[in-house]
Amino acid sequence: MEVSVTLFGGLRHYLPAGSSFNRCSIELDDGSSLESLLQKIQLPADKPYMVIVNDTKVAGDQFGEITIRSDDQVVLLPPIKGG
């Protein structure tokens, strides 16, 4: 199955080759976890980010428990700074 993933800010630099601007499609086996999807993107372990699946923030300790479906929208956001 293919899953749509959007990366914002500096995270865009980790998109696979051939991706458009900040979005890509990742091929996964049916029943794959969010953790499996994130491993395919290959973000550095020390890079902080937040994951949102279908408009719901997912805590890091739940990545292995969330099963991804083909119609899911996955968004990765870097920490937001402001003032």
Written account of the structure:
The protein has 83 residues and is mainly β. 10% of the residues lie in helices and 28% in strands. The longest helix is centred in the middle third of the chain and has 8 residues, at 34-41. It is globular and about 40 Å long. The protein has a single domain, classed as Beta-grasp domain (Ubiquitin-like (UB roll)). 16% of the residues are buried. The chain has a 5-stranded mixed sheet, with helices on one face. Strand 3 (50-53) and strand 4 form a beta hairpin. It has one helix spanning 34-41, and strands spanning 2-7, 23-27, 50-53, 56-58, 73-77.
Rg, nearest Å = 12 Å
CATH topology: Ubiquitin-like (UB roll)
- Main sheet: strands, sense, barrel: 5 strands, mixed
CATH architecture: Roll
The number of strands is 5
CATH class term: Alpha Beta
Rough shape?
globular
> By CATH's scheme, which homologous superfamily applies?
Beta-grasp domain
Query: In terms of quaternary structure, what is this?
Result: single chain
Q: Mean pLDDT, as a whole number?
A: 92
Summarize the helix and strand pattern as letters.
Answer: EEHEEE
Strand order of the largest sheet: 2-1-5-3-4
Provide key terms for this protein.
Ubiquitin-like (UB roll); 1 helix; 28% strand; 5 strands; mainly beta; single chain; 10% helix; 83 residues
Summarize the entry for a quick read.
With 83 residues, the chain is mainly β. The chain is built from one helix and five strands; from the N terminus they run ββαβββ. 10% of the residues lie in helices and 28% in strands.
